[in-house]
């Protein structure tokens, strides 16, 4: 029997977007006279309705968040419970098993998999889970039970230490509710093997979203000297070495990241080809230029420089500066592979940064390919924010 849920009424002029499939309701879109926000608890299930009372969807609410409600289902009365979580996770798993031979991927990607506020990365029998919202935190035990039912993992790690949880009024914590976490966890990608420190590493431990772009790197690294900036565990650089690069330099600010680079270079038998340098990428790029160093291929895979809309101008300047510094290090006919995971940076702005850098150094530019996030990070068609990753492959040459 469908359960009765309290109603959340939208303003007449604010409902078209949600009706069209967008999964978020913002706080300024609600008729607060009919839906007093003080009456709701964080994470509570609600029925989202038009001003006339027509059903739009069920979701969970957080009266303290700018994103007031997140749609879970378009079926009346359907709540975020263990049965729904299990069904959605099975669908997510079926897609990944179709796409990937080996069990290393993002299993669940929030709204794009019908699981708002939930991210799950799979390392074979070990799962790393992140819960971002009060609604998903409220059903945490059901999430764990659904994962157990779908995959029966030996280990589940909750990396709920991301700063965005604070916006939902949630505590930050790391727990291992199932099994034990080894110091190093091994994954495979494009014939390479990598060790990651899941409890100490960044986010969920690995950036699976760049996997298809790292595959394309191989054609641009063969026989070249490669610079891998913001290298983290060496995913780009070590695969470049395996693909025939004659020398690779990985750069990162983190001692742990560079320790992983060195371990992974040894693991893949390319420790004679791959070296690591600690420091700020901007400063190192300047230093390498002053020393006359040149590279056939430069990879830029920075963290997001734009986290909020108000940071767009400063963030765009940072991307421009980074690409200009990289362009100076390219050999004639050099390849620049540059990316942005900033949701608020448009793809054309990233291309513009590369084009401006080429003009500044009197290079002709060819845009060779565009990259996107992998299919284990599917894009929700009504939520542009879910298509966040932009990658540009470009060739810069002198006539």
Describe this structure in words.
The chain contains 10 helices and 19 strands. By secondary structure, it is of the alpha/beta class. It has 3 domains: 7-73, PUA domain (Archaeosine Trna-guanine Transglycosylase, Chain: A, domain 4, Roll); 82-178, Transcription Regulator spoIIAA (2-Layer Sandwich), CATH 3.30.750; 207-397, Rossmann fold, CATH 3.40.50.150. A 7-stranded mixed β-sheet has the order 15-14-13-16-17-19-18, sandwiched between helices. Strands 1-3-4-5-2 form a 5-stranded mixed β-sheet. It has a 5-stranded mixed β-sheet with strand order 6-7-8-9-10. Strand 4 and strand 5 (67-73) form a beta hairpin. Helix 8 (281-290) runs parallel beside helix 9 (312-327). The model has no long low-confidence stretch (mean pLDDT 95).
Cα distance spanning the termini:
72 Å
- The overall average pLDDT, rounded, is 95
Q: Choose one word for the global shape.
A: globular
Extended strand count? 19
Largest sheet: 7 strands, mixed
Name the helix and strand elements from N-terminus to C-terminus, one letter apiece: EHEEEEHEEEHHEEEEHEHEHEHEHEHEE
Number of domains: 3
CATH homologous superfamily title of the largest domain: Vaccinia Virus protein VP39
Number of helical segments with 4 or more residues: 10
**Amount of helix:** 25-40%
User: What is the CATH third-level topology name of the largest domain?
Assistant: Rossmann fold
Radius of gyration over C-alpha positions, nearest whole angstrom: 23 Å
CATH class of the largest domain: Alpha Beta
Please state the structural category: alpha/beta
